[in-house]
Design goal:
By secondary structure, the protein is mainly alpha-helical.
């Protein structure tokens, strides 16, 4: 099952961790209405803004490692588009009367830790990481935008619909793997490895108690807290299955097995 697989992947990191699926007799297959569980607009936008800014930083850092000038040019275009996404989110933060630094600061450590766990060993691993991670997180935050007010939601969805990074990565990686079959095997393993870490990162955007229907401030025993966590994970399982399906499609486009 989805969460049994994630449980094994999650053992490589200290936190957060995922519960064993055997604690639930049946999987939840209902479509998730995320509106009641979405974080406040400030938190949603703060997380998303720093994710886009971190992508821009990763891509620009890789410019100097590009195998040739053509790849460097293409990568610079992808980095520019990533910064445009950040600017679009920052504009919505400003529309709330908030400072973008104040909105992003609470999430910097968590997102930087995620990127340190998923740092590629070379240029190609970094490119496929950004392709897979940005695709997965953009899909997730597009779904989560349902809780925003209409104008802000439309602006965020428009920004996240951009496919510049995806088109760049597919073109470059397919070409590189065609020239070097050994690279394909390595990138397939790497793509499967970072999938679990990325799902753990998006899971951190939610409040377990809110998902489980536990009132704020309610004191729970260890057993009750565990039960609330299981309830929260079960509620999100259809969304996670959907995102895994999209990840598989991205791997398929590259000719890799997810």
């Amino acid at each position: 099952m989805v969460f049994e697989w994630l449980k094994k992947l999650g053992k490589r990191v200290a936190a957060p961790s995922l519960p064993a699926r055997e604690d639930r007799a049946a999987r939840n297959t209902d479509e998730v209405d995320l509106r009641p569980y979405a974080p406040p607009a400030r938190d949603y936008l703060g997380q998303l803004a720093y994710i886009q800014l971190a992508n821009f930083e990763i891509l620009t850092n890789e410019l100097k490692y590009s195998p040739n000038n053509f790849y460097k040019h293409e990568l610079s275009e992808a980095a520019t588009k990533s910064y445009s996404k950040y600017r679009a989110v920052a504009k919505q933060i400003a529309a709330l009367g908030l400072d973008v630094t104040d909105a992003t600061d609470p999430f910097v450590e968590r997102i930087e830790t995620f990127h340190s766990r998923t740092r590629g060993t070379d240029w190609y691993e970094t490119v496929i990481k950004v392709y897979l991670v940005s695709g997965l997180l953009d899909d997730f935050y597009r779904r989560l935008a349902v809780a925003l007010e209409p104008t802000s939601r439309a602006a965020i969805e428009k920004a996240l619909d951009d496919k510049t990074i995806e088109k760049f990565a597919v073109r470059i990686l397919v070409e590189a793997m065609g020239d070097n079959p050994a690279l394909a095997s390595r990138l397939a393993l790497w793509g499967r490895r970072i999938m679990g870490d990325t799902l753990l990162e998006l899971r951190a955007a939610f409040d377990n108690r809110k998902l489980a229907g536990v009132s704020e401030g309610t004191r729970l025993s260890v057993a009750e807290e565990r039960e609330a966590n299981l309830e929260a994970y079960t509620k999100l399982e259809p969304l996670v299955s959907e995102l895994i399906g999209k990840h598989t499609m991205r791997m398929d486009v590259l000719g890799l097995t997810a």
